[in-house]
Amino acid sequence: MMRRVGRERGSASVELTILIPVLLLFLGALALGTRLALANLAVDSAAAEAARSASIARTQPEAISRAESGASASLANQDVKCLRQSVRVDTSGFAAPAGTRATVTADVTCVVNLAGVSIPGVPSSKTITGHASSPLDTYRER
């Protein structure tokens, strides 16, 4: 019995040496997944805010301006810091005659910084795009 116990000496330290890097990679992957999921939600929300802000404007230039400021404010309120961000707004619905259905669409693109997550093989940034549309009032003056 004593011989068997003696042969297992030091096995706990070997197990910990193997387990700690695996545990750190798991925690890093969890942090990366959380960061990307929150950024996706924030960019989708910013696109919805951009489309909604553009849809209540009276003119196309005002719609573009409101969409850009709405998306920036939404991302700032959610504490998402983009390395680069862009807002593309389709305001062709403003040209539709009164009485016809029309929409405004917004695409928000954000390049999220992933440099804080140190997992081998993970890029330092990821581009996330959100898309949303909002209806224009059918019977308002355009």
How are the elements arranged and paired?
Blueprint: H1 2-7, H2 11-55, H3 60-77, E1 82-90, E2 103-113, E3 125-135
Antiparallel strand pairs: 1-2, 2-3
Helix pairs in contact: 2-3
Write a brief structural summary.
The chain is an alpha+beta fold and about 140 residues long. The protein is about 50% helix and about 20% strand.
Strand order of the largest sheet: 1-2-3
If you compute it from the alpha carbons, what radius of gyration comes out, rounded to the nearest whole angstrom?
25 Å
Query: How many helices in DSSP terms?
Result: 3
**Percentage of residues in DSSP E strands:** 15-25%
Helices and strands: which structural class? alpha+beta
Task: Point out poorly predicted stretches.
Answer: none
What is the approximate shape? rod-shaped
Could you walk me through the main structural features you see in this protein, from its secondary elements to its overall organization?
This protein is an alpha+beta fold. It has one domain. It has three helices and three strands, in the order αααβββ. It has helices spanning 2-7, 11-55, 60-77, and strands at residues 82-90, 103-113, 125-135. It has a three-stranded antiparallel sheet. Helix 2 packs antiparallel against helix 3 (60-77). It is rod-shaped. The mean pLDDT is 87.
Structural descriptors:
single chain, rod-shaped, alpha+beta, 142 residues, three-stranded antiparallel sheet, 3 helices, 3 strands
